[in-house]
Amino acid sequence: MTVSRDAAGRWFVSLLVEEKIAPLPPVGRNVGVDVGITALATLSTGEKVVNPRYERRDRRKLSKAQRALSRKAKGANNRAEARLRVARVYARIAGRRRDHLHKVTTRLVRENQVIALEDPTVRNMLKNRSPARAVSDASWRDLRGMLEYKAAWYGRTVVAVDRWFPSSRLCSVCGASQEMMPLNIREWVCPCGVVHHRDVNAARNVLAAGPAES
Ligand SMILES: [Zn+2]
Question: Residues 6, 18, 19, 34: which is the catalytic one?
């Protein structure tokens, strides 16, 4: 047993236990996951997993608390209080985000035998790092970590697709590759006649490539 306290002044008790987890019965469904900025994730089924609605409001509260902290003089009595307030808001945001990711990953692992993900880390490091991108990268790392250990518990497989795989530029129906696919294009029409939603198409390509990569 470990007792600890975080920067937000919250106390935690952790218990280490040994437990046998029974794998889930196998299922016939596989899924491809495209992790993005506009949606937390887009699935090859066409479903969008959105970021929680409260996130924008929480962010406003956080920047308000950070501004209040920056106005307090160093060594002032109320500075420690302002710092604690920032830590509390931040802890609530992180907790809610983690809770949301747990629900999403548990559902994906229950419903699917193979979960294919694109590895976006290197690709994104080469581009400008916007704050939204940083958050989406952090979510991706947590999402992948949770999927991997839950898959191991329940007898599922997580496959990370090559980071250079051109999932956005390929047509998931005919396989033709487009020269370019700028980020602002959300929908496109392939010469074969199929209309694609950018992220759904990418998720389908990730699913098709996933089992071949493993
Ligand atoms: Zn096509």
Answer: 34
